[in-house]
Write a structure and sequence with these properties.
This protein is mainly alpha-helical and 408 residues long. The protein has helices at 2-16, 19-27, 36-58, 63-75, 96-108, 124-133, 145-164, 238-242, 258-265, 270-278, 301-308, 338-353, and strands at 86-90, 171-172, 202-203, 212-213, 223-224, 230-231, 233-234, 365-366, 372-373, 404-406. Bound molecules: 2-acetamido-2-deoxy-beta-D-glucopyranose (4 copies). GO terms for molecular function: metal ion binding; oxidoreductase activity. It comes from Serendipita vermifera MAFF 305830.
Length: 408
Amino acid sequence: MVGFNALLVSLVSLAVTGTYADTVARSNNRIPWLDYEGIVRAGQDALNYTVYRRELAELSGASGPLAIRDELEHRSNGVPRCKKIRKRKEWRQLAYGEKRDYIKAIKCLQTKGDYNISPVTDNLYDAFTQVHQTNWTDFHGNSWFLPWHRWFVWIHAEAMEHECGYDGPVPYWDYTLDYRNPSGSPIFSTDPVIGFGTHGNIPQTEIGLGGYKVDNGAFANLRVSLPIPHYLTRNFSAWKTADPEGKYGYQLGESYSPAAVAQTLAAPTFWEFEGAMDGFNVSIPIDPTAPITLADIPIAGVHNAPHAFNMGDWNGPTWLFGTQWFPAGVVAPNDPMFWPHHGNVDRVWWKWQQKPGKQWEFNGKKGLDRINDALPSDILPFYNLGPDPVVALTLKTENWPMCYTYSG
Ligand SMILES: *[C@@H]1O[C@H](CO)[C@@H](O)[C@H](O)[C@H]1NC(C)=O
Ligand SMILES: *[C@@H]1O[C@H](CO)[C@@H](O)[C@H](O)[C@H]1NC(C)=O
Ligand SMILES: *[C@@H]1O[C@H](CO)[C@@H](O)[C@H](O)[C@H]1NC(C)=O
Ligand SMILES: *[C@@H]1O[C@H](CO)[C@@H](O)[C@H](O)[C@H]1NC(C)=O
């Protein structure tokens, strides 16, 4: 009991004083459809419960822990509750009208102001890209990766709803259905209303390592702004020359095959799951100063591979390798495919969390150097895109404020 209380006080004081309150205050309630105060309270509540659960696992005997639970349930009064739990769906499960409205709402974000979130652009579409590239090594390739992106995709879905009226299912792209021919997936339909389009045919030299202007589908001729204005660019041929024999599957498909996902889901700890999922630990770490070679292909992982099979906006930093924008530009959210892709990354984590004892597990390392321990009380930086949440608040999608789930 003494251990529990000491731990509780030290973790909670992190959340209620100093850093957490300050970061929330800095972000200044600027987005009207986010309940900043509620998110702070829910974050404290989530932290309280995370500590409680950890202690419960360590204690034997029921009377102490039950008393603690009652006390915590009493305290959590005042934290908003979900009005309903929304179910996310695979892209193919959306009705025609839902696909149409979802795509319309993504484009609509280019017409909405950004509440001064981004210092360099002025619409909400670009603000997401800007936030994603700010100090990006803090939340890629380490334990913050999954919680940070979960919250990011959720805020994007909220923006789609509150700014642009989309309240249909939030889609994910389950690429295990397409791993033998990913770019042949129906999500890349050239339909001008409901297709994300292919990689197009018109070679580009505006930025990065070339590629093709997306000239078909609903995002044909889309202009995006970061790091400088350019046409949305893709190149689905990226791995054809690097892996001519298809050792890693067509377009790295073996990295996100049903077998690869099953193997990832078998990871015994959050940290090992993160390493396999994100991709940094599938083999030797990539040298960020060197161009990608065949030897680097096995770094793929479920998350990295779908970024890497395309050489263009949604690739991320490798596309900008050797240009003046490397390594700061991590502009993957320029491509609308970012959202269904990261929806699926989040879904695979959700699946892992459904295993016994995994819902609240969070551990591993943070930072580019992966030296310091990552904790449920860590505060995720969102650079004015809403209040900065504590990790503990992101661990259960069915809890307020996220209020969503997956069917499997
Ligand atoms: C969390 O615990 C702290 C410390 O006991 C308490 O002051 C606070 O009200 C609790 N917060 C919530 C939302 O339960
Ligand atoms: C990025 O991180 C550095 C080092 O922690 C910090 O000084 C800087 O303020 C951060 N950038 C922004 C935009 O907050
Ligand atoms: C697309 O990628 C392939 C394979 O890396 C490369 O040979 C080709 O030049 C790229 N096309 C453009 C237009 O950049
Ligand atoms: C990464 O791989 C090494 C070597 O296989 C292993 O010792 C380490 O635990 C792994 N780390 C993660 C996060 O999975």
